[in-house]
Records
---
Amino acid sequence: MTSRKQISISLAAVFFSLAGLYIYAAYDDWLGQSRGAGEITGEARSDVLVAAREAEMAAIAAGLNKSPEKQILFGDLHVHTTFSTDAFLWSLPIYGGEGAHPLADACDYARHCSALDFWAITDHAEVATPKRWAQTKQSIRACNAVSNNGDSPDMVSFVGFEWTQVGQTPDEHFGHKNVIFEGLDDSELAKRPIASGGITVQALRTNGKDLIPLPLAFADFPNRQNYFDVRRFLQEAAEVDLCPADTPIADLPASCFEIADTPGGLIDSLEAQNLDPLVIPHGTSWGFYTPTGVTFDKHLKAENRPEKMELVEIMSGHGNSEEYRSFKSVLDFDLDTMTGVCPQATASYLPVCWRAGEIIKGRCLDDGESEAECEARAAKTRTLTAGLSVAAHLSVPGADIEEWLDAGQCRDCFLPGFGHRPGNSVQYALAIRNFDDPKNPTRLNWGIVASSDNHRARPGTGYKNVDRLRTTEAVRVRDGWVERIYPKSEKSSEPVNLGREELMERGFGATELERQASFWTTGGLAAVHSEGRSREEVFAAIKRRETYGTSGARILLWFNTKDGVPMGSTTKQAQSPVFEVKAVGAHKQKPGCADETIDALGADRIQKLCANECFNPDNERMKITRFEIVRIRPQITQGESVDNLIDDPWKTIACNDNGNGCSATFTDPEFAASGRMATYYARAIQEPTQKINADNLRCTYDEEGNCTKVDICYGDGRIAADDDCLGEVEERAWSSPIYVEHINGKWSSNEGGD
């Protein structure tokens, strides 16, 4: 007869065997499930509503003596779902995530929550698989099929992907590009998304699933399936075979994983497939991942195909990349020794390396060391830190983020990205030329847009500044997990000497994630002057650069010459044109969602996606307070300093807006005699309102203008979940430039643009 003890031993053996099998299955990723694109549930917006907006636009245009033949449409050309690695990670419970954000959510949100006219999906190519690409195309086609009004659909959806490149040094860093296609047929789309090379792809393809160590699943056992799923998601991408290097691009199978190491390689691959999509640089000045000392100059080399980058994204939820400043975060960087010269702090800029030295010096003095010894340690720290680029904060062991104050940040930029890199700003890029061909130096010929770069399948989030944890990239790390996600070493009065190999191994783990939380905003919008609402008309308007960007508010903006040259165009003149700029402020917003929106999407879906807050315009509009005109005169000699070529603002024009908008004209009295080209664009500035993270680090300043204390918008329980970290901001719209070449000047192009 079997004893109870034997039964207990047998049951224990079975239990431990099953537990062992479960753990083995988890480690071998048997338990992870693939997630799809979701199901679109919303109906099309009412034709009556669309017609009413068109009628309002026509009436406003007529009131400003603008042609009603073109209407202004708003969209978002930069959107991610949980088909992107970072979006999937941020959806996890440890980051306070809501769970999966599939592509179908983005469709319903764009149509009903934010009420956009157009949008594009741009998930990261670095984790694309043939199955996900097929699902993406199918979902976007389904989103478009909801529109049933022929050539005047309620919304147009575009297929795209993001080429996400990150270089460790200035010479090898090209940054991110969105690739967006006009059509929906397979013949009009890339066979597969094209990934970048470098550390991002290397990390994802070698040990990508280890971004989520399996013990996290067991530590958060009730939510374990989420962790199993993201590991499966990453492993599926790593299992796709690389495209064979010896096969012509046109002959590559759709089933392989393609890599292009440079922008030129990306564009060459697209052209080999007979495609001519939009290629849009974005986040050019974000210091979060952009190396110190980087500039946009290398993009102008012929092999990188600058002529195919027809637009630039000036702002997103990561910040504004517009403004050039003369400050530098490091001087004389030496790659071999990973050292550099640390610039001194000034009244307008506090280098991270300088602040690092001050922190170490303060600790040294607290330890009772001599002034001379502590100053020597500070100098050593500055030198070491200057060579660490995006990992500069790691030179000071155990530093609290408050200790860094506003180090590395642009103090007087409008909603800057974290660690603003001025040499990669839009203004700098518009001021430079490439002189490799001395007889025909080249320049950039950009149109301007803005977008959200939202990672929660929520295109066009800037319509209301509410719900920071849904409408920005902010996360709320669960209690008890902060130390695991943002680990800190023991404090010391000696700096850490990190070598190049260690930095390479850390990859994105070397970036300053925690302090960036104070820089997430609801992002911007793209606007186009289009001849109609159809896919072809919207894409054509974007292609001809008749575009502008806004910081999120739906400001109406016109910028052209009196003789009819629209924004985004190039003209040749002997005398300055007469420029005309007109703007109307964005609609004020009513709380909640309109009844027709709730009826179209359903109350439950409205609550889940929109948090019961939709684009819900009032009849009253905000007022435009002024225009700021920026003038940039591109280089005419190699090495000409851009410091004297960017006039910002070159001209400020006050507005007396009575609620119907503002108009102004101007000329450049210096143009004729200057004998050189000039580029002009307009900013329309709206009266102040509240915006999430508008004051980013919320510094307290002393009489000399130094930041002495910060009030960080933390990503954890140190602030309330419903604290939106609001600050006052003047929302704005940026026109695309008008490029005026001097007929008698140097480097006038032969075909209307060089």
---
Amino acid sequence: MDNALIADNFSLLSKLMDIHGENAFKTRSYSIAAYHIENLDTPLRDTPHELIPGIRGLSGSIGQKVIEMLDTGKLSVLDELIASTPPGVIEMLHIKGIGPKKIHTIWKEMEIETVGELLYACDENRLTRFKGFGEKTQQNIREGIEYYMQHQGHFLFAEMEVFFPQIDGYLRKLFGENNVAVTGAYRRQDLTLEQLEYIVLAPATEVKPKFVSAQPPELLEDTEHSLLYKLRNGLKLRLYTGETNMAEAQFRHTGSADFIAAFESRYPQALAGSKTEADVFAKAGLPHIPPCLRELPGILDLAKDKPIPDLIQPGDIKGIIHSHSTWSDGSNTLEEMARGCMDKGFEYLVISDHSKAAAYAKGLSEERIRQQHEEIDRLNQQLAPFRIFKSIECDILNDGSLDYTDDVLASFDLVIASVHSNLKMTEEKAMMRLIKAVSHPAVTILGHPTGRLLLSRRGYPVDHRMLIDACAAHGVVLEINAHPRRLDLDWQWIPYALEKNVLLSINPDAHSIEGFEDIRYGVLAAQKGGLEKRFNLSSKSLAEFEAFVKKV
């Protein structure tokens, strides 16, 4: 059992004790323990048991519980609480805007035990009768539930990609290599997906018997042209059956509904008899449009007027921009991050640990900045020609100001400014903070511009056009945060950014060496927006990047 899981168990224990109305001091002690465990530099499983109670926050019974988890893989007091709590009440912890104390009221005073019941109670305006539940709170809870329920059964592209090879191989084994092709949202590289879609060149009467096994998937839909299954992991698998021409079928099911409707209305004869997708586009007099661009009908007009751009590729990323080390909340030391970059063939690393306002992430004080810069200077001498650039992910404070004085900001090669606190704000408030930040002469890059977390947090409301215009006016780069839960700036705003000559930067926001791999998801998302490597900051060579930094 690793530190993260132990910390998660203590965090859940604290929340469930609050839900049950237990002693607040005791519940807080477990929350504090979780915090300290998350920030430990060494794995608890490698720590002698007798030393564990001496670790800060793990004295007494808490230390014994850590040892219990290490020895048994379980925490009995947590298991007992889970068993005595209705599953629907625990599920409420996933609803944004409802904390454990409110859940206690919902369960014990409102006598509501499921998320569905809670939504119904919101619709009947029942929550406002209870202390601490005004109209605004009720509306926020309703919106949180609707958002949560809407995304049940949805997967991040990165999550779907884990399942894909096994499913793809299984289908090809069942129906033959040339009789199966992936299509739909996965082929378009959508950021989130509800289902994985395939063309199968066989009638449904032949397909269904193939899925008969000891544990067959659940058949949700059985229509003339498709079968929809639900796999044991919750993933939905749609098989388009009865097709005879793979090129036609794959084309028709790959594009979005709007794209296909526009294409067929303009080029009604292009599909008939085509043997490949290249034939389809050739008959329409268009260059080949990659699947990732078959989202919006407007691409048809662009393709008619000019060539499709050479889309950025993962190999076009030359340096790692936006990364964290153990100086703040990263898992690897600065030297390990640098050597990890070198091992993967990158030319430079921009280290951007958190600023001091991010106390939860061990944000850097002015003194620690000086110490880190000394280490960077030493490493740059050792690792040349590889180079580490001095940066910071500087918090944009509530009034739009930055987390350090101008003198401190001037000590960095470049500054990434991001919002991490007070995310619940109006568009007017959000834009005030963002515009003021990008107007600061020290800011080089605006990090994850909306603060969204895919499938779990919408992010604060942003006027994208105004924000992009401001970045253009002040020469600020817009980040495409490559973490698969962020992918923020959203790809749909890339064309407008390019129109305004705003430079973009695909950055992994890596908190470990493994985090560098997220670059790929940022590239896939950027391809949907038509990004070319020449408009991407992290595609610059070391010499080009050094020249860029000197100008900012």
---
Amino acid sequence: SVALIGASGDPKKNTSRPQRFLRKHGYAGRVFLVNPSRSEIFGEKTYPDLRAVPDPVDHVFIMVPTEAVLDAVAQCCEKKVRVATIFSDGFAETGADGRRRQDEVVRLAREGGVRLLGPNCIGLVNTQAHLALSVNAVLEKADVTSGPVAIVSQSGSMMGSLMSRGQGRGLGFSKLVSVGNESDIGVGEITEMLADDPDTRTILLFMETVRDADRLAAAARRAYAACKPVVVYKLGRSEVGRDLATSHTGAMTGSDDTAGAFFRAHGMLRVEMLETLFELPALVANQKPSTRHRVGAMTTTGGGAATVVDRLGVYGVEVVPPTEQVISDLARKGIRIGRSRLTDLTLAGAKKEIYGGVLNALLGSDHCDLVLAAVGSSSQFQPHIAIEPIVEATPKANPLAVFCAPQADTSLKLLNEAGIAAFRTPEACADAIRAWRDWRAPADTPAPDAARIAAAQALLGAARRLNEHEACRVFSALGVPQALAEVITDPAQRVGVGFPAVAKVLSPDIAHKTEARAVRLNVTSDEELAAAYEEILVNARAYKKDARIEGVLVQRMEQGLAEVIVGYKRDPQVGPVVVLGVGGTLAEIYRDFAVRLAPVSVAEALRMIEQVKGLAIIRGYRNLPRGDCEALAEAVSAFSQLASVTPRVLEAEINPLIVKPEGQGVVAVDGLLVLGENEPPRRQDRQENQGQNKGKS
């Protein structure tokens, strides 16, 4: 049973829609209307308040002015309602005052045992129950087709668009949920429910931010175990950074980079195009990620297929030619194909047996792991030539992606009905294959090294920002090799690190010493060191007058094959992350880096090294001497253990970490470490900081 608090008799108002939609879409449960100023609405009895409803109520939809929401929730508590969806806005999305109103509503609901969806929420649809509990205008005319796909959206205004676009591509839906401000029930908990829902096989998420990362991570892993792919479209790809840190790491990794690392770590697929969100599900339905990602491509339209294959090349997806075995097997059947990476049948004759023969040969071969079939004009005018062989193809374990170059609605419908992934644009097709290539099983989190973590924690003081020497001692305790170093506080002081040496200011308040002109390289004698000491202090004080100067750090000069940056930060959305990129003062400009959730294993750190293009110089590129990649991976893994250190580390960085020739290790020659608070921020604080604005239509 459902109650509508604030139901309206004015058909022009949003608040009149839920009553009409429930009836239009065939909801068979009881519907109670609550409006103190009306005795009936559209011929149905109304009640002055929820208390007056004589029967139990399972779900309440609240559509009253902001100031009346608290009383409506109080009535739900008295009535022992299990769930209330709040359409009303004017809460956390409006600022601090709205946040306080929302907190009070949540407190009251929790005390009364009522779960909340919203506020600022456009509603939900459950097709199995014919429950269209929403104000979304698309439900006025559209009939929602039942099917295995669920959508959860953080954007209320997009719910109708997602529904209509999905149906236009042949999708049937099990559940559609708008979450609004996520004051209580959020994306993670709903995803968890959908992972257990027998009517749902694929879960699509339209996201603006990651709010409850731990809950969503657990839910995504649960869905993965149930063989239910979770596909994410997230806004914010253009955001290149945020003002969270003063280190290069903060400049390099914006929220979108860390969100991408989060999705990948927990077995979710991320798409770049909205079209892909609806066309990808059939490609990965009932699948698990492949360990190999070679694509075999065939076509009856050379140019049409090239529009997909060219984009696959930009994404770095491997497109492979047919093997000699495939070529000879087809030749024995009278079908001759070439050795090109794109098997073009344009000149082979538009015959069903040719197209079907080549397709089955590629699907049955182990030289590729996915087959791309691009269809030309026959998909528009003669579906029996190319589309029927696809539908009739012998099912194989490898997925099949079909791109129809012309507008071919009949063919697309045939493919959708057969459960075959069909794409209308080359961009969406390539994006889907890239997402399939990037899909991984949920990552294992390495066990913390208790001894090293205890040693690092013992070196942390009360100050939030450590100086470089203190930071490097912490990194060394975790297992990251450090350059030999001493601190001097007098220009006449002698050092035992040897020459040549590097001298630099030691201050917790000067993060970028090069900018302060407070570094001297290649110091070769005590006299040079004394002169460098005086010059460094003068420049440092000129750069930042109130900086705490704790001496000069003198390090043995180190050389190697390459310099890398290793960064760490505690992202407010997804938690601890580790970053690896090309080092030096221009680190943030090139944006060539790999991001992972921390901590990482040595094996995952090796994959990070492979991902960074600029590190090809230590991977043996064109016979260049190989760097010690194993030692680098071990250092990255050790550094990522900062995620387990208490007090909590807010951000840290080694820039540069010098990579020596293979077998000679790595050595850190600079470090930064900033401590945060010991307790994690409250979930609602994170939401407020992210300043999310939820819209409705």
